[in-house]
Amino acid sequence: MTTSTRGAAKTPAVLVLEDGRIFRGRAYGAHGETFGEAVFSTGMTGYQETLTDPSYHRQVVVMTAPHVGNTGVNDEDPESSRIWVAGYVVRDPARVPSNWRSRRSLDEELVAQGVVGICGVDTRALTRHLRERGAMRVGIFSGASVADDEALLARVREVPQMKGANLSAEVATKEAYVVPAIGEKKFTVAAVDLGIKGMTPHRMAQRGIEVHVLPATATVEDVYAVNPDGVFFSNGPGDPATADGPVAVMRGVLERKTPLFGICFGNQILGRALGFGTYKLKYGHRGINQPVQDRTTGKVEVTAHNHGFAVDAPLDKVSETPYGRVEVSHVCLNDQVVEGLRLLDQPAFSVQYHPEAAAGPHDAAYLFDRFTSLMETAQMEAERA
Ligand SMILES: NC(=O)CC[C@H](N)C(=O)O
Description:
The protein is of the alpha/beta class. Helix content is 23%, strand content 32%. The site of glutamine has 11 residues, from strand 16.
């Protein structure tokens, strides 16, 4: 059969892990070389959303789904204006994409955006290796750059670590912008962009919220300049231990007791603002099939995740903090990692996972309603006072 994409071209490529394990395959997407932290995603669908999620900045993503690219690339599903993954690893790229929305093949899109990938590698073996040894630095080399393995390994060992990486400002908007409410406007939210996914303000807009998306460097004054009914802190790449600026802004919001919601990086920032530590998980949670229990209702949700760090908060007791009592509201049932925090004495909460569900199941959509009801209650209280 003739092939329509370069994915099946026989240019050799090599994937070199920092511990010296090497996988050989074929070039996929752009030819050349790339470096990052090797992580795996178990999502069977939603590769466009994964590729364009700014939280994947500086990460080389291995897809555990064996066949990727089947539905091509459309203009509706990206979560931001570009692909952010540093490199892409798939076992068997679709040679002929087929979908009514498809505009081009995934391989063409990777080439157009200069994203270096590799295909034809045993992604099951690679994933098992990362699970056993942990996420680690990696390089992908193809075409002229496939040279002697020792030299490539030496270069991989020079790549900066994800631990200690401060990356939000590299991916967030430089200028503030507004996402208008859909239908009648009920609330204004200031959203601090640490690497926000497009679906997040959209989920708020669907609930009558006008979202003012602010740069990662926004100050407390910038946040309150939009006269917000609620404040939101987004997902984002890098190590939350480096996010001192957003932690200080969040403390300013907690002091004013404005309704507050955080997702993923936003959950880690809330954890830090309350005085908890964060730590790096061995290989993280990435995919759209992670079981999380909402400990308030006991219900289990199937949820979308993309995190390599987590909050270190006690699961079995209510913690006293300078901002009142806090409980761990959600927990991952695979490994008991903290997946949500809730303040008991003021209207603030956050989750480590992705209720915006792009891609992923919609089980957690109620969290946007919880945020909306916190703003409703605050508004009613203000009117009564
Ligand atoms: N999606 C996110 O916000 C990720 C948060 C953080 N960079 C982590 O890896 O844990």
